[in-house]
Amino acid sequence: ADLEVTHWWTAGGEAAAAKVLAESFNKLGGDKWVDGAIAGSGSTATPIIVSRILGGNPMGATQLNTGRDAEDLVKAGLMTDLTEIATKEGWADFIRPSKLFDACKYEGKIYCVPVNIHTEQWMWVNPAAFKAGGVSVPANWQEFVAAGPKLKEKDIIPLATGDAWQVNLIFNDMVSSIGGKELFLKVYRDKDAVAAASPEMKAVFEAYAQARELADPGYVGRSWNEATSLVISGKASAQIMGDWAQGEFGVAGKVAGTDYDCLLGLGNNPVLNTGGDAFYFPKNENPEVTKAQLKLASMMVSKQTQVAFNLAKGSLPIRGDVDLAAANACMKKGVEVLNKLDNVVPSVNQLLSPDTKLEVEDLSKEFFADASMTVEDAQARFVSIIEQAQ
Amino acid sequence: MSHAARPNTLFKNLNAKVAAVPMIATVLIVFIGCTLWTVVLSFTSSRSLPELTFVGFDQYTRLFNTPRWNVSAINLGIFGVFTLVFSTVIGFILAALMDQKIRFEGAFRTVFLYPYALSFIVTGLVWQWILTPTFGIQRVVRDLGFETFTFSILNDQRFAIYAVVIAGLWHGTGLVMALMLAGLRGIDEDIWKASRVDGIPIWKTYLFIVIPMMRPVFITTIVLVSTGIVRVYDLVVALTGGGPGNASEVPAKYVYEFMFRRANLGQGLAASTIMLTTVLIIIIPWALMEYRGGKRK
Amino acid sequence: MTAINTISTEPHGRRPTRTFTPAKIMIYGVLAVAALYYVLPLYVMIVTSLKGMPEIRLGNIFSPPVEITFQPWSTAWTSACTGLYCEGLKVGFWNSVQILIPSVIISILIASVNGYALANWRFKGSEIFFSVLLFGAFIPYQVMLYPLVIITRELRIFGTLTGIIVIHTIFGMPILTLLFRNYFASLPTELFKAARVDGAGFWRIFFQIMVPLSAPIFIVAVIIQVTGIWNDFLLGVIFAGSKNIPMTVQLNNIVNSTQGVKEYNVNMAATILTGAVPLLVYFFSGKYFVRGIAAGAVKG
Amino acid sequence: MVFQSYALYPQMTVEKNLSFGLRVAGLPKAQIQQRIANAADILQLEPLLQRKPAALSGGQRQRVAIGRALVRDVDVFLFDEPLSNLDAKLRSELRVEIKRLHHKLANTMIYVTHDQIEALTLADRIAVMKGGLIQQLDEPLTIYNKPRNLFVASFIGSPAMNFLRGKITGANQDKAFTAADLTVSLATYDAQEPLTNERDVIFGFRPEHITINDKPGPAGLSCEATVDLDEPMGADSLVWLTVAGKPISVRVDSSRRYLPGEKVHLNFNPAMASLFDATTENRV
Amino acid sequence: MVFQSYALYPQMTVEKNLSFGLRVAGLPKAQIQQRIANAADILQLEPLLQRKPAALSGGQRQRVAIGRALVRDVDVFLFDEPLSNLDAKLRSELRVEIKRLHHKLANTMIYVTHDQIEALTLADRIAVMKGGLIQQLDEPLTIYNKPRNLFVASFIGSPAMNFLRGKITGANQDKAFTAADLTVSLATYDAQEPLTNERDVIFGFRPEHITINDKPGPAGLSCEATVDLDEPMGADSLVWLTVAGKPISVRVDSSRRYLPGEKVHLNFNPAMASLFDATTENRV
Ligand SMILES: Nc1ncnc2c1ncn2[C@@H]1O[C@H](COP(=O)(O)OP(=O)(O)OP(=O)(O)O)[C@@H](O)[C@H]1O
Ligand SMILES: Nc1ncnc2c1ncn2[C@@H]1O[C@H](COP(=O)(O)OP(=O)(O)OP(=O)(O)O)[C@@H](O)[C@H]1O
Ligand SMILES: [Mg+2]
Ligand SMILES: [Mg+2]
To answer: Which SUPFAM superfamilies did the record assign (chain B) (predicted)?
Structure first.
């Protein structure tokens, strides 16, 4: 049967990764991957995907952020139950970290397939740009801030970023990297208002305020891969972005460690979250489609697919048992942290409801855009968001 | 009209009633039904899916305590006032100029009207290109040698909403011009002659005689423009995406986002209800005016 | 009949003269400046779409192309990528046509019958329905979206061609009905009465007497619907279903799926191509639009 | 039924306009043809059959509208102010045509009009209506000469009837109408009820029922008056004078002009006058 | 200048309408007041000053329009069909008022109208225009009685002048007009040029210049005719007859009714008739 798959992977590296999935699926024979890419980002695509599922015209499979995005849909019984195949193939045994897999569970049943691990706490830097600015490549956030003015003098954008979720990503990264793992968990997992009001959190906001100074005004309306290409071309020196940025570096033929480098946890606290992309399979009336869905699900977690896909996407595989010989320097750094598990935290998507998550995003992007907003004001609002979070 | 039906027979005007079934269904199911549904569920804690857990005015309390909503509402006000004032004024001036027996009237009319044919998405994209500082007007002027020239309203959260106004005016003023032109052409030419004979300067004639006479046209225009203002969405999405920060957010976007993306239907519907109420507040005075107007005719 | 179209679209009085007085020069000056503001974006779109990428990076957006290339146009039409497919806009174009034609015809048909019933065959409650319908003209789409998803789901037309046609018909109904009602009401009532005396019924009067007299308002309705439906993004993306993705959605996909660098020229070409249909409609029938607006909107 | 605004279907030719009702009724083609030919013949529409209404003059349009009623072969015609939208010249022409048609068809026609000339010239009987009530239903000349009440009197006739408000005075057979310094004997007036003394009445007389003389006429039927204005209307003139402090108009032959301020004498003809009760406004 | 469509400013009260031009001209308040009071007095507008035009009747509106011209204290008034949009009754009333106003102000008024009754009653001199050319400029009665050409003759007068096409026949002093079996002596006709024999002419005579008798009149001035129709118009009737195969109308007193088909005799009065050359259409 034709299996329509919706996702928002339209940037270069992402599209290449999607192609891997499509081709592998088509190769299995019998069924066909019908690509339903929706350009923009999750914010454009999610409403369309959700409304289609609600509207009773579900696609065969769809990308959704693991976490609570899909929870209500699962609750309403709109998603295919994958428990059977998951048990049969023993997914629980090889998917790591297990928290990632937990996100797919609802009342003990499995409803989604995680396809990769995305880690977000990265600062991508272009050494050549720092050299051109007459400063050494920074080792951590503080050094980077110090280098800012010199870079600006040379007309190099210190920090390339884009609107909305991209600046929010910077903020959340800072909570774990500047504030540390403890703070991150207290605030986001425990919804601890006291922690949110703490001096540590204030430091996070202060760092975030510094980031605001280091970005160029052109960030408005810029997409993340445009920002990445600014770093690639040396027009900007750094970008704080998830590991998917590596896909772009890869497409541009750049080599990690030489052409570009990465600061895990902004060089401060090497904490990684384990978010990622996951696929859901909305319930379908056609049994052929259901069969195809299960086939796709099983294929997605297979070793072969995992390697090829994650290399293209720049993310980490969900299996601990795959060979990562082909992985680059930065990926290896990530795998190291992941293997230790100490410094792994759940992703914000898993901890916060979409509502709270986007409240935080609203605050962080407003703060980023409005230089006159003080750290105190922002923190006060942050506290009230955390207080009301559910 | 004297052929109003006797009300008591169901089968009188049967054909008319049958023909009006689609309209009646639309009205009852879509407009009334959906509105009621919206209002009722705005008092619940519905998340992704509608559920009937009533929480009183909680959603409204939260709504009015959300900075983003307040910014959206203020933005809608700013956008609304500026769009209304400028599109009416500019539209009228253009129409008045076009009415001066000029040559190339058709060409000018086409030029002023064509943006209306383009979608807000296209409008937003084009103006984004033009207003982007790294690329558009600012860069062009700087390249001309004015190194310090700054025109970056798109990236300044104080002015981003005015970028939306500029693009919106570009899109919609042509229609206003067309309406005004039609209105001007409907004015008895003798009025012009009379005011000439009275020795009244042209601008005074416009101000004190023609504009008051065009009241119905102005009302139509204002109503039309207002409907567009309340539902402004695509333009913001394409032009600023609501940014920088939340600086150019608008209510329609708030509603849409809460319904489908934040999985907080209750909150989205509370915002919808407020929007619907606003619309009613706009319409009712107009409807009353029209009613009286109808009697006067 | 003289009662129809009493508002002329011609200016009053004598034809324009060739003499240029200072006042005339000022009028033309102001109009020219205004026109500049209006054409500028179109100009930017066109010149950019004709430039190659290197030239775009070097020059400014207002400079004319040094070397004209039509590559971006053909790319946009046939091979621009969205996701895995690189088929350009043409698929979306045909989808849009497929949505457009039945939607325009059905929505206008229904709205004109509504307008006719409301203007000439008022029945008990018809005015109330009309008032509510008008209120519907003001309701932001976003507000109705969720319930409409549910309604179309229950009708089992969600995500189908039928679904999107129904949705366009519903959203087009208020304003079109208003236009038609006002127009039919402005026709002399005696005409209707005469046809009644001649023994004609509801449909015969409509098709044989009213419709042939209503060319101006039908033209306006077609213009409004063609541009409105063609330009629609939100409804198309949600209700049309993946097989019927309209052109605007594809445009958005192309513009927003950047592969490496943003191909501004392709984006602009795609934008112009997408806007071409409504633009052509306006260029060729703008005059009727103004005239029809006068007949349907201003008078009412 | 024929409408004031013709109500022709603008998109159809004259022929189509005429045949529409018949086609709706499903008459056989041949019969339709024959009826149209007949109507076209009566109304001289043959040369116009293929034209559209827009290409017709007002009078031709109204003829087509009449034709549309004609082909339907009805017993009663209803004309609703059919000539109001025509200019004076056409109006008088078409009026004659309608009268001819009436004579030829000899069927009932109900003709609504605001124009009293039309009413007077066309009607066998006129019903004057006011506020939905018939004021008088009579033959035209009766309505003109013996209006039953003040409304009918003032409505019919152009230039309008003159009215003077006054009292009835005088002995038994010698009743007279008195207003200020004017006294007119009512000896020849054909009263419908006894003329009681001191009764408040309105004395009405049409402009053509007074003559102007240079010398005083018989006592009790004549008075002096001052010329106010002289309106020559071609065949005759309307002279406005002041009598008993009120302006009245008199229709005279236009061969003699009167100057404002000139003193003249008026002769009344009470036999042609009307007398109305001042309170009920009915004829006495 | 006073316009056919009144051209009042609809959103202003009558007072504002009157004063707007003066205020723009910057006249002192007191003077504006005084002029308005004056105009309002002349036109009896006082009770209406605070109303808006929409709340006025047609005649009142036109009075305000006249008032607007009046307050400007001009030497020449230009009226452009001021009464065309009014109904017959109002028209005749306002006509008289304008005439009074003219007498009172005694300044020049140029009055454009399509209505010949207005022209005849109001004018000191009438210019009849056609296609932008003046056809005749004369006093009203001259225009009426001695129209200079066929256009003027047919344009002025209602019911219209009758025309018969024929030839001039007869000996020197005994010229006559002949058409079919009709011969009318032209002995008393005041010709402006020699009447040559066999010349094609059009003989025009007004309906009121013919009398109907039951017996034949003097030879050469009388003929037999058949009654076609009788249109009673109140004071008088218009009788349509057929003479020399052509329909003509005759105005008679309405006291006698004529039946269609009745044979009567007509008496002509050539002194009041007009004769036009059939080709140049000018009066001979
Ligand atoms: N019996 C009635 N009951 C209620 N309304 C009525 C009645 N008769 C007439 N009307 C109303 O009065 C108004 C005028 O009616 P109509 O047009 O019949 O008047 P008319 O005498 O023909 O006027 P005109 O002389 O201008 O033609 C209309 O609006 C009509 O609806
Ligand atoms: N001298 C002229 N040159 C060119 N066009 C003219 C001239 N005079 C008049 N016209 C045109 O002729 C048309 C009719 O003119 P106008 O309104 O003055 O006619 P009118 O005699 O007043 O008609 P009506 O009797 O209907 O009032 C107008 O469109 C006007 O522009
Ligand atoms: Mg009527
Ligand atoms: Mg004129």
So the answer is: MetI-like (SSF161098)
Asked if C206 and C113 touch (Cβ cutoff 8 Å), the reply is yes
The dihedral built from the CA positions of residue E54, E59, E64 and E69, taken in this order, carries a sign that is positive
Q: What is the pLDDT of residues B162-205, one digit of tens each?
A: 999 999 999 989 889 988 888 888 888 888 888 888 888 888 88
CA D142 to chain CA mean position, Å: 12
Within a domain: residue E157? no
Do D119 and D215 belong to one domain? no
Based on the structure, what is the number of domains in chain B? 2
Residue B270 lies in a domain: yes
What's the confidence (pLDDT) of residue B89? 94
CA distances from D73 to C171, D50, D70, D110, E5 (A): 48, 22, 6, 15, 42
- Interface C:D, ≥3 CB–CB pairs < 8 Å: yes
C13 CA to middle of ligand 4, Å? 13
Please answer whether residues E273 and E204 qualify as being in contact, where contact means their C-beta atoms are separated by less than 8 angstroms.
yes
Q: Which CA distances in Å does B274 have to B39, B59, B251, B263?
A: 9, 11, 9, 19
Q: What is the number of the ligand 2 atom nearest to the C-alpha of E80? A: 27
**CA-CA-CA-CA dihedral for B146, B147, B149, B155, to nearest 10:** 150
Of A54, A163, A218, the CB nearest to B241: A163
Nearest residue in chain B measured CA to CA from E71: B198
Does residue A218 belong to the interface with chain C, where contact is any CB pair within 8 Å? no
The pLDDT mean for chain B works out to: 83
SS3 at position C212: helix
Of the candidates C114, C126, C133, which has an alpha carbon nearest to the alpha carbon of residue B287?
C133
For residue B254, tell me if it sits in a domain. Answer: yes
Question: Residues, chain D, total?
Answer: 284
Question: Nearest-CA distance from E237 to chain D in Å?
Answer: 8
Per-position pLDDT tens, chain E of length 284: 788 778 888 888 999 888 888 888 888 999 999 989 988 888 888 888 899 888 888 888 888 888 888 888 888 888 888 887 777 777 888 888 888 888 888 889 999 988 888 888 888 899 998 888 899 999 988 898 899 999 999 888 878 889 999 888 887 778 888 888 888 888 888 888 888 888 899 999 998 888 888 888 888 888 888 898 888 887 788 899 988 888 889 988 877 888 888 889 988 888 888 999 989 889 98
Phi, psi of C290 (to 5 degrees): -60, -40
Residue C147 forms contact with B (CB below 8 Å): yes
Spell out the residues 6+ positions from residue D85 whose beta carbon is closer than 8 angstroms to its own.
D4, D5, D6, D58, D62
Question: In terms of DSSP H, where are the helices of chain C?
Answer: 22-49, 53-58, 71-74, 90-120, 126-138, 141-154, 161-186, 189-197, 202-204, 211-213, 215-231, 234-239, 247-256, 264-293
Q: How many CB pairs under 8 A join C and D?
A: 47
**Residue indicated by tokens 């071309």:** A233
Is the CB of residue C260 less than 8 Å from the CB of residue A251? yes
pLDDT digits (tens, 9 = 90+) for A5-35: 988 887 777 888 888 889 888 888 888 888 8
Strand order in the sheet with A2-7: A32-37, A2-7, A61-65, A277-280, A112-114
Provide the ipTM: 0.78
Give C14→chain B minimum CA distance, Å.
8
The tally of domains found in chain D comes to 2
Q: Name B50's Cβ contacts closer than 8 Å, sequence gap at least 6.
A: B37, B41, B44, B265, C150
Query: Has residue D282 been placed in a domain?
Result: no
Query: Based on the domain organization, do B167 and B23 belong to the same domain?
Result: no
Supply the pTM of this predicted model. 0.81
Question: Does the distance separating the beta carbons of B133 and A365 come in below 8 Å?
Answer: no
Domain of D76 in residue numbering reads as: 14-124
CA dihedral C30, C35, C41, C45 (to 10 degrees): -140
Which of E124, E143, E171 is the last residue in one of the domains? E124
Looking at the structure, tell me whether residues E176 and E258 fall in a common domain.
yes
Please check whether residues B271 and B134 belong to one and the same domain: yes
* Residue range(s) defining the domain that contains residue B24: 1-41
